[in-house]
Amino acid sequence: MIRAGILGGTGYTGGELLRILRDHPSVKVEVVTSRKESGRRIDEYHTHLRGVYSLKFIDVDLKEFRECDVVFSALPHGSSMEYIPELLDMGIRVIDLSADYRLAKDVYEKTYGLKHKGYRRAVYGLPEIYRDLSFADLVANPGCYPTGAILSVAPLAKKRLIETVVFDSKSGVTGAGVTPTEFTHFPNIADNIVPYRVTNHRHFPEIEQELTKLGGKMRIAFTPHLIPVNRGILTTAHVYLKGPLDKEEIQEIYEEFYSDCYFIRFVDSPSVGRVRGSNFCDIGFFSDGERLVVISAIDNLVKGASGQAVQNMNLMFGIPEERGLTHLPVFP
Amino acid sequence: MIRAGILGGTGYTGGELLRILRDHPSVKVEVVTSRKESGRRIDEYHTHLRGVYSLKFIDVDLKEFRECDVVFSALPHGSSMEYIPELLDMGIRVIDLSADYRLAKDVYEKTYGLKHKGYRRAVYGLPEIYRDLSFADLVANPGCYPTGAILSVAPLAKKRLIETVVFDSKSGVTGAGVTPTEFTHFPNIADNIVPYRVTNHRHFPEIEQELTKLGGKMRIAFTPHLIPVNRGILTTAHVYLKGPLDKEEIQEIYEEFYSDCYFIRFVDSPSVGRVRGSNFCDIGFFSDGERLVVISAIDNLVKGASGQAVQNMNLMFGIPEERGLTHLPVFP
Amino acid sequence: MIRAGILGGTGYTGGELLRILRDHPSVKVEVVTSRKESGRRIDEYHTHLRGVYSLKFIDVDLKEFRECDVVFSALPHGSSMEYIPELLDMGIRVIDLSADYRLAKDVYEKTYGLKHKGYRRAVYGLPEIYRDLSFADLVANPGCYPTGAILSVAPLAKKRLIETVVFDSKSGVTGAGVTPTEFTHFPNIADNIVPYRVTNHRHFPEIEQELTKLGGKMRIAFTPHLIPVNRGILTTAHVYLKGPLDKEEIQEIYEEFYSDCYFIRFVDSPSVGRVRGSNFCDIGFFSDGERLVVISAIDNLVKGASGQAVQNMNLMFGIPEERGLTHLPVFP
Amino acid sequence: MIRAGILGGTGYTGGELLRILRDHPSVKVEVVTSRKESGRRIDEYHTHLRGVYSLKFIDVDLKEFRECDVVFSALPHGSSMEYIPELLDMGIRVIDLSADYRLAKDVYEKTYGLKHKGYRRAVYGLPEIYRDLSFADLVANPGCYPTGAILSVAPLAKKRLIETVVFDSKSGVTGAGVTPTEFTHFPNIADNIVPYRVTNHRHFPEIEQELTKLGGKMRIAFTPHLIPVNRGILTTAHVYLKGPLDKEEIQEIYEEFYSDCYFIRFVDSPSVGRVRGSNFCDIGFFSDGERLVVISAIDNLVKGASGQAVQNMNLMFGIPEERGLTHLPVFP
Fold it and tell me: Which whole-number Å values give the CA distances from A228 to A183, A195, D227, D268, in the listed order?
């Protein structure tokens, strides 16, 4: 039994880790921290989990994790780095859901406007690409947008086929976090769609870093939008290839690349509703001869965050990647 | 031309006053205050009004209203009372959209847990009931829930026919105001419905006061719910009458009571979508022999707030009640 | 291993049976029928189940069920009755999700305007009330509204405490089924709320029959509304008791009545979002001294249909009621 | 007073024409046809217009239009062409909201898979581009997607600055029309986003025709998505220019191009909510140095259909383009 801890359990990703891990046959959640809710029963805060978790939040105290085999950090970026080095030094394996270990140090500092206080090397935890995690002690769980974007074109990037790719992404509102803001105020987003950080979202360097690592130089662009949806990211990747490819060739490239990937499903009509609550990434292809369109759909809180974190944990501990993650989509 | 001022122009009701009054042929908005946005162009804040209002918010200074014939106070309860007595003393007529002047003083203080600092007598501005406002200097614009509730059964109350009435109300999220809170955080209300203050909402004493004034003692109950809708209140009034009445008799009672009321429409299937953006109150009746169900639908920001305030203004100034308020519903 | 068949697998309840039973450790789905989709892979139709079910729909042919231990009928009312008697005669146990076996024959015929062609005695499958199903061959799975309504006041009814109860119910749109109609056309219901069959919904006789059976005569009323939500029914039960009871006494009555019921959760703030995708029924109480308000929240497709059907199956086969049904709510 | 007729008044665009024209000071609606609703009062069908239109639908009979100065055809494509030539021959000016007269004949026949039965030359009624309509007898009102797409880049196209433009468009569900389908079934689109006709939507040839006419050859692509919104199209135009331009130069090009256009507003943060119910087209620019992103937001039923039709009518009759169209956006 893997003993797991959660650092920062009150956000959406913390709640999802708790939901997912309750059903994981090889894991037991032992410690969950929260500064502001310490002492409160978890299921009094995450009321949808009522009756499921009698465990209480504790204040942050790294010693409490000493019996853990793995700790998930669901703290915001900038906070994760304050604790992770010490956890690693305690011999605990860590999966960080924040941005703190996803980027090269200098790119991180420039992108997030912060000095990195505890840099360590981490594996970028997109398990469809980095499949061997058995030796990893620190996994940087990808951002939600990069997950959808990279998975949509990784097979093409790997083959160095892409001339230009424009990612036009549409995200549900849980992606903006659990804290109320003007941006997430119901009347500002219901019956509406709102583009934001149109050319300067902080997930762009992450997309660029990973695609470039995979496939060398290409022209990459990214624009996110908030849609009146709770969960899900739909990524529409508009791709201009370096040369012509017919649909069968493309299909083959994708099927080969993702041949042993449980969570990749090829579908005719991707939509976020049809992956809701699950760890699947649905992918569809469309071509007009000149432009290839690849569309991916994920649940931003599952495959885009906590589900992927558990998938990474499975691979770190030599468990099949899908264990505890076979929840079917709740549709409609 | 009526010169109008708005005290507190940054909330939803302030925005709606601005939207409505732009189209009013007899009114000009001269002054709009805001502490936090003072100096900023109105249409830079209310961006949907872009290009329409070059006027700037000014800080609160009652002298600036001295040329106004009427001031709408769109401040929160507790703040309105700080300014209204002085405005009245300046000889300016006032329509208060807050709760400060709706209730008897003692009921107000108990309900809102505040000492009333500037009590004056006001007319309760539900113009379908209090139609002569020509002499009124201070009109207390009703709450959104009371508007929908009272209008749904006023004709029956007046005839003293009601034994029991249970108001089960469903409100759009703009009713909770412009300030982001957990309650209005998109993921907490989208794809959801949330009852709140189930037996102790502060609009209950207002409903009780007015229905009792109109029709004496009856058993009254009220429960509100928040629904994933921007605008609108649907009130389902479950009525047990003191004696049997057939549908025709009821119809007649309503048609007589509302005979000269422009904004009351009798419909077969009331819904908030079909009054969106308009000052109409749609009413439908249904009976199963034992119980009468009367359903009313209003736009909470228009008939439930700013539209009704303008309707009150019209009646105060001897203008037809519908002037400047004939916007048709935007459906779907 | 229980071998299960599904009669009519293309509706929402069919889809949910498939989703739920995939995770049930004691059940295997062997046969799923559909007239219009016969021959097609299930996961090409229910695309959210992609990759999960390679089984194909077959045309209706009761002989195909001969190896089944249990058949779920997810056909519409009027159709179920055409097949169920024969299935029973084949020695197969049946759970009918339609209305065909919920009501006394005469009440059924009057309510649904149909001649009953294959009447048999059935157990009303609300397992919190009818807990011993070990001998049942035919279980009539309750309607979604009756499930939420009856569970909200059953403990009070049992004690004969209710004078009047008004059920004001709000349902998500999946309750209206998978077939597109004007009623379910997105623009007619989004950003809207629509009351319908205000005093004459066909679930009323079912509510009345069961509450009366449980607690004798009382004054009962029911009005449903459609809300812009996919799943869920929130039932607001406005109750006038025959005599005063304090909140502790009520709490005690409920806790005793539901003492061994896994799926009943008592909560402070019920909402449909917090039971989404799960078989829980969340219940909260509120009192203003005169009126008691009990609010229940269920997922109409799970506890209001397919989840409850599986719960009934468990009890029929002597399995703990929660087996295969412990999915946690997907919130937000 | 312009006497107007509406051919096909039961769809969303018919309803919007009725809503808009009620407030137009120079127009009176005299005749509205409908095959299926003939004889019924308009406001019994369009129930949100209750009390506003006592006029009845009549069956299609072109003679009834003989007193009209202008007829709006709100029939589906393929039907409009059956009536329009005869109306023109009767000396009546026509604005066609269908696709029948937007494209060159051969392109139309190929795109819509129909033989054109009544081809006439028409002006493409995008009034920001074709401003002189005083001599036009037949105006082809643009499609909703082309309106948003073309307006977003027309100034750049005109200057021949575009190398590649990818239009990623997101539409509200009213764009799919008033007839219920699986596509518009509430549970299929609520809490979801659905790409469709990803590389082969019929509005693409229209976008291509007009942009090419304006600015010669460029690489153009278009993908539409359906979002859970009633009204509105947000078009995200990802533009690669032929050479570098700074934001000020771009701003200048747009301001010059749209200098006398009442309905174009330049905004920092375009969103469909902030144009809801109005004829505005809000446009915002964003640049990352390499890629220019231009985002436009319109109400698909107003600027994308009926409002634009009235704007065209105004220009045909020598009236200021904004007359009767100054409704402010209803936000939130």
Answer: 12, 12, 8, 20
